[in-house]
Amino acid sequence: MSEASSSSSVLSTRPSEENGVRVIPKKESKAAADCLAEAFQNDEVAQYFVKTRDTENWSEDERWTLHVRIMRSIVLAHCIKGLALTVGPNHDCVALWMPPGKNMDDRMTMFRSGMWTLNLKLSRDGRRRFHTEFLPLLHHTKSEVLRDLDNDSWYLVYIGTKPGAQGRGYARRLIEYVTEQADAKGHTCYLESSNDINPAIYRKFGFETVKKIQLTDGPSPVNLDIMVRQPISKSTSHEITHVEHHGQTAETA
How far apart are CA 35 and CA 112, in angstroms? Predict the structure, then answer.
């Protein structure tokens, strides 16, 4: 996952009257994070740093508070350094993309987003899982899979829809908002999926599973599908969109 800058130089952030997609400003980051917190409240990866051996005695409220704090820091970091998108009247679906050549590892972004405070909030096991297993595994896998394209690709970090807003095609809009422009620029797209039903859905957008990895520090392994989408020509993209309009859309990643 080093200069803080706007993503507008990479991807147009103009409002889209056609599909309702808009860029999330920093002042709306908490509302957007609350959408993701709700969408990922039962996700094994999102809970991997919250439900640990040394938080077994925590109350559900304490775990939920930490879960929300993590999401709020991540969303704000993407508002500052990446591209945070939403659609729907009440931040009903949110996607966090990291544009080509960008990351949120620099000190200024970590400070402004509050990411640095998570070390103070995570339990000892949570910190260990995050820093010694999760981050190294994801960074190494992305570098190994993309190779020379690692710094020249779009990274879909999170996408989630509120349970009450599913089935409206919101996730499709947030994915295609970027993939259409990635195709125009010849950029690859990359994601990790921790939901078993999503790889089949992502394939409708041109993603393919290229590797499977596991987080193994918990009571049972947590599986992630590594998926890559190569730039697609206009004719091929039309065929994929036609299929997707008659199918489901990804609600979480």
Answer: 21
